[in-house]
């Protein structure tokens, strides 16, 4: 991995930060737009929405890729450098291998626990949602708030629960790697 000067590293970190902020702002604006469309009951159809999303994503990534290319790095090298810099700034790089293993093990267990809880929410919500989805409802009947809550529970379970399980598994794998480093090099 190539070493960067302080100026190059700062340029890479700033570019990555701008990319993250742009992504966050874009997602928040998209969610706000959907909420406003639903709240105002407007019929709004975007033709080619997936293509439009891919185009916006590509436009957001282009400046970051240009910085990476200007620095003579590959995307994987840039990712490694950014991760190492993040660990250095957070103080994680100064931890011993055993401390890092314990840290990753704890975080992995927490992620798996929360992920399992969200998967349970997903299953219960899906059971309720699909049980009620086919029922006929009177035209003037009040809305069932549990039906809406079950849809939200399914979405949260799918979007957050399953990725948390995968991330927790990866953290525990990282902890096992750090434990083997600590076993092989007791001084680290």
Give the topology.
Elements: H1 6-40, H2 49-70, H3 75-90, H4 97-133, H5 145-184
Architecture overview:
The protein contains 5 helices and no strands. It has helices at 6-40, 49-70, 75-90, 97-133, 145-184. It has 2 domains: 1-94, no CATH class; 96-188. Helix 1 (6-40) runs antiparallel to helix 2 (49-70) and helix 4 packs antiparallel against helix 5. The mean pLDDT is 89. By secondary structure, the protein is mainly alpha-helical. Helices cover 80% and strands 0% of the residues.
What are the defining features of this structure?
mainly alpha, 188 residues
Number of strands: 0
**Helix count, per DSSP?**
5
Mean pLDDT rating: 89
Describe the global form.
flat
* Amino-to-carboxy terminus distance: 21 Å
What letter string, H or E per element, gives the SSE order? HHHHH
State the helicity in percent bands.
over 70%
Helix/strand structural class: mainly alpha
Low-confidence stretches: none
Number of folding domains?
2
Biggest sheet descriptor: none
Cα radius of gyration in angstroms:
23 Å
Amount of beta strand:
under 5%
């Amino acid at each position: 991995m190539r070493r960067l000067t302080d100026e190059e590293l700062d340029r890479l970190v700033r570019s990555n930060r701008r990319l993250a902020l742009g992504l966050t702002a874009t997602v928040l604006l998209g969610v706000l737009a959907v909420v406003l469309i639903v709240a105002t009951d407007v019929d709004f159809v975007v033709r080619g929405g997936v293509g439009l999303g891919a185009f916006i994503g590509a436009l957001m990534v282009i400046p970051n890729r240009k910085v990476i290319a200007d620095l003579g790095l590959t995307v994987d090298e840039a990712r490694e450098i950014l991760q190492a810099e993040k660990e250095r700034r957070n103080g994680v790089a100064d931890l011993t291998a055993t401390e890092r293993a314990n840290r990753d093990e704890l975080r992995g267990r927490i992620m798996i626990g929360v992920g399992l809880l969200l998967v349970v929410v997903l299953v219960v919500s899906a059971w309720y949602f699909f049980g009620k989805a086919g029922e006929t409802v009177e035209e003037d009947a009040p809305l069932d708030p549990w039906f809406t809550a079950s849809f939200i529970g399914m979405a949260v379970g799918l979007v957050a629960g399953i990725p948390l399980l995968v991330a927790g598994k990866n953290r525990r794998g990282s902890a096992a790697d750090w434990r083997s480093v600590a076993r092989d090099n007791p001084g680290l």
